[in-house]
Amino acid sequence: MSATTAVVAPTDEKEVAEQTGAFSDFGLWFSTTTAHPAVMVAMPTPSVWNDPTALGARYYLKWETAVVPQSIRPTSPPAGAPYVEEIEVAPQLGMNFGEAVRRGRLLAQRLGDAADGDVGD
Amino acid sequence: MFLPALRPEISQGDIFEGVRVLEILGGREESYTGPVVLLSHDCEFDKPFEYVLVARVLPLNTAPRSSWNDIQQGNALNAIYVPAVAPRPESFINLRYIHRLPKDELREANVVGRRATSMTDDGRAAMLAYLYRFFARALPG
């Protein structure tokens, strides 16, 4: 693993002190600083190590840093984008309201039977 | 799914408006303010524990349009369809957002009139089935 850091913009001491975050081997890192118009990011870049061994070429990740506007700060969802919920559809497990009522009542009855009493108490 | 009037006491399946949830997740602060549904059983609310479980209730139009029909038909694993009951819009309970909340938050919401609606017994039975399906990835019964 090699790390290369290219400082592309001057960063004063105060700004550095305010930057927080954690590196993840394969994830984006970003600062939680909000008081500045730009944040630091680091992106893993696949590179080939030109010293192949008997096992073949080796690969490593090269970290590069850059200052990007906070408007493209890698949040989830991206800053400024309309928030859309993720929905997982499984028609094979489909259950309309009527069917859910029937199965829910059966489930509650079985749970009650298993507990030999009212599980709600 | 909902009763024409609120149950006398705060109950499982009640929907509360304007509830604030604040969490620290992975070192990052995340907050939500909006409607939630009480998932915990009535007896949990009566016991001397400080917290109960709630889930976010989101307007249907926050989900991808392509999923609306599946949510309405009960085909979405992490969603329980909530029909529109004026003034509440057509919505869904998002089971991927279950939070622990102090009971006092709900008691306060009740006092100031932000307990919006109570579920019927059928609604609560259905919610149990949907919760089972979400966690078991199988149909109950």
Could you explain how this protein is built, in words?
- The complex is a heterodimer of chains A (121) and B (141).
- Chain A has a domain at 2-72.
- Chain A contains two helices and four strands; from the N terminus they run βαβββα.
- Chain A has helices at residues 13-18, 97-115; strands at 2-3, 29-30, 38-53, 56-69.
- A four-stranded mixed beta sheet of chain A has the order 1-4-3-2, with no helix packed on it.
- In chain A, a hairpin with a 7-residue loop joins strand 2 (29-30) and strand 3 (38-53).
- The longest helix of chain A has 19 residues, at 97-115.
- Chain B has one domain: SH3 type barrels.
- Chain B has a six-stranded antiparallel beta sheet.
- The longest helix of chain B has 16 residues, at 121-136.
- Chain A binds chain B through residues 20, 22, 32, 83-91, 93-97, 99-108, 110, 120-121, and chain B through 1, 27-28, 41-43, 58, 62-64, 67, 70-71, 73-79, 81, 94, 96, 122, 124-130, 132-133, 137-141.
Main sheet of chain B: which strands, in order across?
Answer: 4-5-3-2-1-6
The strand count of chain A comes to 4
User: Beta-strand percentage of chain A?
Assistant: 25-35%
Intertermini distance of chain B: 21 Å
Our count of helices of chain B gives 4
The overall average pLDDT of chain B, rounded, is 94
* CATH class type of chain B: Mainly Beta
Order of helices and strands of chain A: EHEEEH
